[in-house]
Structure to design on (400 residues):
């Protein structure tokens, strides 16, 4: 189908919840994407941090093809290949390796599951505790409960009333957290680096103080690693760089390199709060996505993606830092590993993104003032150089 025909069909038949860019992508390989006319793009979005191994990774494609021909779905009423193996492998990414997993189909559902698990756990241990505290500017998803957890009024306003039991505290403010964690609170849910909120990292002191407060008060520490997980920031999970031991971790995005899958990963004691019938999913943990996720996990560690995320990410931040010296339009560069953002002093982020797109470079803006870079984790310095050379020319134009 021609791109213009596809745009017309989309406008007519697809709910318009996204202001899509006018490109029709048909294939990809590694960092590269190709449109319907064969034009090549360098991808610094990776499907919003989902395609950490790059597009069409051979081992993942092979796993999908093999399992797709064998068996795709029978539901959670029965055992299937790959589900328990994947759970063991996910658990193995944590100290001790004794965590248990609930499989969902997305990040939103993983967080929804974590919120239900926290309430269920509190029912027996701390009657009266049911609230979940999260950070301002956080993002935890789009279902009503995860939207209520999300600390962004602009995303909530048009869907009131939201489920109760959520409150928000400013990130990196220990006193505010101390005051918020009262006896009605079942869990604290945090991102180590806020993604959709604009790439804002939590600081080390805050994270360990938060863990300490949770331990003292019997409140669950839950970390949303939906965007930071699977080596995006260096370690398998971003919280591991700070030596945290969260009770519950939620993941999704990069887990099967682009197939829809998510998970709640909880320590044994908390996981046991869920009894048969308490929670479920028709598709979650199906053999197709689990086979793809296992191939993804294997390739992520074989190819030392975490190590490259750290080195390429440091290089990207350094190059953006150089641009910041020359362009006062850039007011801040920040992030962790290959999750990098920069703030602009003027509301021209969308314009910069559009100009880069016309030059064959995919980056993403968050709101009017923030540009975000989330390339696949095997991104090379040469590709960062290409990005920054183009960005420099675009900034010259924008500032003219
Ligand atoms: C993307 C994201 C979600 C929601 O994941 P979906 O798969 O889109 O439902 C939740 N939390 C964080 C931190 C995210 O980045």
């Amino acid at each position: 189908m021609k791109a213009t025909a596809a745009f017309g069909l989309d406008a007519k038949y697809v709910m318009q919840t996204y202001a899509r860019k006018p490109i029709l992508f048909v294939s990809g390989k590694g960092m590269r994407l190709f449109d319907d006319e064969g034009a090549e793009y360098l991808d610094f979005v990776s499907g919003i941090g989902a395609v950490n191994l790059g597009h069409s990774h051979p081992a993942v494609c092979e796993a999908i093809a093999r399992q797709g021909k064998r068996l795709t779905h029978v539901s959670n009423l029965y055992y299937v290949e790959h589900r328990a193996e994947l759970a063991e492998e996910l658990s193995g990414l944590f100290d001790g390796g004794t965590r248990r997993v609930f499989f969902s189909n997305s990040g939103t559902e993983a967080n929804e599951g974590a919120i239900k698990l926290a309430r269920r756990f509190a029912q027996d241990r701390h009657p009266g505790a049911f609230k979940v505290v999260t950070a301002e500017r956080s993002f935890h998803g789009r279902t009503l409960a995860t939207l209520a957890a999300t600390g962004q009024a602009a995303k909530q306003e048009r869907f009131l009333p939201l489920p109760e039991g959520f409150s928000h505290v400013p990130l990196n403010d220990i006193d505010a957290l101390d005051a918020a964690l009262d006896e009605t609170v079942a869990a604290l849910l945090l991102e180590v680096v806020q993604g959709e909120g604009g790439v804002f990292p939590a600081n080390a002191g805050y994270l360990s103080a938060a863990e300490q407060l949770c331990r003292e008060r019997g409140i669950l520490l839950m970390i949303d690693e939906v965007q930071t997980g699977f080596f995006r920031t260096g370690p398998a999970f971003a919280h591991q760089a700070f030596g945290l031991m969260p009770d519950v971790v939620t993941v999704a995005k990069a887990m099967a390199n682009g197939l829809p899958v998510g998970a709640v990963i909880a320590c044994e004691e908390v996981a046991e709060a869920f009894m048969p019938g308490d929670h479920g999913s028709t598709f979650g943990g199906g053999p197709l996505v689990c086979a793809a996720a296992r191939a993804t996990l294997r390739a992520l560690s074989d190819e030392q993606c975490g190590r490259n995320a750290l080195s390429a990410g440091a290089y990207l931040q350094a190059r953006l830092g150089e641009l910041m010296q020359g362009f006062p339009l850039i007011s801040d560069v920040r992030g962790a590993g290959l999750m990098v953002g920069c703030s602009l002093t003027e509301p021209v982020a969308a314009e910069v993104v559009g100009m880069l797109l016309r030059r064959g470079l995919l980056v993403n803006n968050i709101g009017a003032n923030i540009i975000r870079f989330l390339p696949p984790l095997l991104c090379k310095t040469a590709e960062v150089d290409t990005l920054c050379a183009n960005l420099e020319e675009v900034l010259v134009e924008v500032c003219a």
Remarks:
- The first helix runs from residue 3 to 13.
